[in-house]
Amino acid sequence: MDVLARGQQLRLLAHRAGSARLGCGIRPSRSRVFHSVVAQARQSAALRELEAQQEERASQALENKTPVVKDLTWERPLEIIKYPDPRLRAVNAKIGMFGDKVKQLGMEMLEVMYNGDDGVGLAAPQVGVNVRMMVYNPTGRRGDEEYILVNPQILSTSGRRELHEEGCLSFPRLFADVERPHKVKVRAQDVKGSTIMLTLTGWQARIFQHEYDHLQGTLFHDRMKPEELQKIKKGLVALEEEYLQLHPGAIVQRV
């Protein structure tokens, strides 16, 4: 929003606030209304920051309790599993070994991602491997910059949040808006075990947070506001019914 538009909005708010108080015989000054609007904005920003801090602490506590694997095994060929497969909600173990196996899993995950429907990121549980590992390429084009992140952690997020449409390879053809922090600071390891520090903004921050949620057992529709969730609820139920037909008696978390 430009400065002129913001000024017009504040004047409108001041006018409305003044009109609302005319009945009691006291009309607030423009200065008082302005400071009230600023105070409310600061309070909202502080609440968002507090919520982000609480979520980060909860995530850290969960990571501290997760098991550690010393070997990696997976079935080939890797395939994307669909919601509501219970593996998407399962605990994902930390990786405690590094080298060729970790790199190989990462490369195979990237290949699955490229073969998906416009995929730009993929978490290990989405291919049925319940470990804390993700891959992404912000353009989705082979040959562009690729990331293989092992045992990622969110160190901090910005108070500024943005609403943007998201999809997920485990939820074919379902799209809706999700609100996420604009900026995120991250610590992870590469395939050799070396520490990586990243500060991501915008699109890359959104991709990372989406895939990181998978490692927490959180799915993108869990973060949608009720009106957005309602837009895709029919599709979610259809995926649930399809899965239960193929897996009679399975226990799944339904929407």
Kindly describe this structure:
Helices cover 41% and strands 22% of the residues. It is built from five helices and nine strands. The chain has helices spanning 3-20, 30-65, 100-115, 202-215, 226-246; strands at residues 68-69, 94-95, 121-123, 133-136, 147-157, 161-168, 171-181, 183-189, 195-201. The strands form three sheets. Strands 3-4-5-8-9 form a five-stranded antiparallel β-sheet. Strands 1-2 form a two-stranded parallel sheet. A hairpin with a 2-residue loop joins strand 6 (161-168) and strand 7. It is globular, with a radius of gyration of 22 Å.
Key terms for this structure?
single chain, 255 residues, alpha+beta, 5-stranded antiparallel β-sheet, two-stranded parallel sheet, 5 helices, 41% helix, globular
Could you write a compact summary of the structure shown?
The chain is α+β, with helices and mostly antiparallel strands and 255 residues long.
Largest sheet: 5 strands, antiparallel
Q: Name the helix and strand elements from N-terminus to C-terminus, one letter apiece.
A: HHEEHEEEEEEEHH
Number of strands: 9
What is the count of DSSP helices, taking H or I runs of 4+ residues? 5
**Beta-strand percentage range:** 15-25%
| Physical arrangement of strands within the biggest beta sheet | 3-4-5-8-9
Shape: globular
End-to-end Cα distance: 37 Å
Mean pLDDT: 86
SSE arrangement:
Layout: H1 3-20, H2 30-65, E1 68-69, E2 94-95, H3 100-115, E3 121-123, E4 133-136, E5 147-157, E6 161-168, E7 171-181, E8 183-189, E9 195-201, H4 202-215, H5 226-246
Parallel strand pairs: 1-2
Antiparallel strand pairs: 3-4, 4-5, 5-8, 6-7, 8-9
